[in-house]
Automatic annotation (TrEMBL):
Protein name, UniProt field: Two-component signal transduction system YycFG, regulatory protein YycI
Key words, A-Z: Membrane, Transmembrane, Transmembrane helix
Stretches the record annotates as Disordered: 264-291
Organism field: Pisciglobus halotolerans
InterPro entries registered for this protein in UniProt: YycI-like
Superkingdom of source: Bacteria
Length: 291
């Protein structure tokens, strides 16, 4: 074995992780003033006075750890096991793209129903998808004809695109193809950390001018987001993902659930209705988190 190379990998990883945690600490200190200001001003009332539509908050204090995934090429290694499809893995071995030989028929209902979810879950956990038992439904985007599943890590979905299954539908509401990314086996790193609440996350966005007047704020979802990407491993931190509808646009904003800082990257698109629960069931209270 090349012990020199292994020693160097450990040293580099240690230095990067220390830098990462120091950055998180500095961000938390920089954002302490936000929590102090929130105690003095009723930001919810202020937002409502600006005709901002808010969701029902859980306002629950959670503790969630960071998680780590080692670099892998498991999709490439296992793709030949898949049946009833034609697929290919990209050059980096991180993305699998598949075209199904037998489309999966869903209901004729315009929205996604509970029976649809059951049918999709059966498909996801079949021999037509790798590691499907590790993924759960996240949302349905009718305008794009996409159904998105996320890999679950420590009871929380990874929803940044690095561990997702995106199912594509045709005009007859049949699954005809899908794309998959996979983080690989995930391990907990360190102790669980106290998180800001979903309500705090929306207040932070408002204070940072991310929520305009007359906007519609969807219920925040606790997810994991890749914050460190090295050759040998990736580190994921908990974030609150918040969908904000303003006029004809949708913005997806993310707030670090530990430090309370707004992530610089945000996604926007033309307005499109998304569905995060089946049409014939009640919304869930959110993702469970391991204490």
């Amino acid at each position: 074995m090349d012990f020199k190379r292994i020693e160097m990998i450990f040293i580099v990883t240690f230095l990067f992780l220390n830098g990462f945690f120091l950055y998180q600490l500095s961000q938390k200190n920089q954002n302490n003033f936000i929590g102090n200001q929130s105690g003095k001003v009723d930001l919810v009332t202020e937002m409502e006075n600006q005709d901002i539509t808010l969701p029902a908050f859980d306002d629950e204090e959670l503790k969630v750890p960071y998680v780590q995934a080692e670099a892998n090429d498991l999709l490439d290694q296992n793709k030949d096991q898949l049946t009833k499809q034609t697929g290919v893995v990209d050059e980096e071995g991180m993305l699998y793209v598949s075209i199904l030989s037998e489309p999966v028929k869903l209901s004729e209902d315009e929205k996604l129903t509970t029976s649809d979810i059951q049918r999709i879950n059966t498909f996801i956990k079949s021999k037509q998808v790798l590691f499907g038992e590790e993924y759960e439904f996240i949302r349905y985007v009718p305008n794009k004809k996409q159904i998105i599943y996320g890999q679950i890590a420590n009871h929380v979905p990874i929803a940044d695109g690095t561990a997702n299954i995106t199912l594509h539908l045709n005009g007859s509401k049949e699954i005809i193809s899908y794309e998959q990314t996979y983080a690989g086996p995930v391990t907990v790193q360190g102790d669980s950390r106290q998180l800001i609440t979903d309500k705090n996350a929306v207040e932070v966005l408002y204070q940072n001018n991310k929520i305009p007047a007359d906007a519609d704020v969807r219920k925040p979802i606790l997810t994991y987001y890749r914050t460190l990407n090295l050759n040998e491993l990736s580190m994921y931190a908990p974030v609150w993902t918040v969908e904000i509808i303003s006029g004809s646009n949708i913005h997806i904003e993310q707030v670090d659930a530990v430090s309370g800082s707004v992530l610089q990257e945000s996604m926007s698109d033309d307005k499109e209705e998304t569905q995060d629960v089946p049409a014939d069931s009640s919304p869930s209270s959110g993702s469970e988190s391991q204490q």
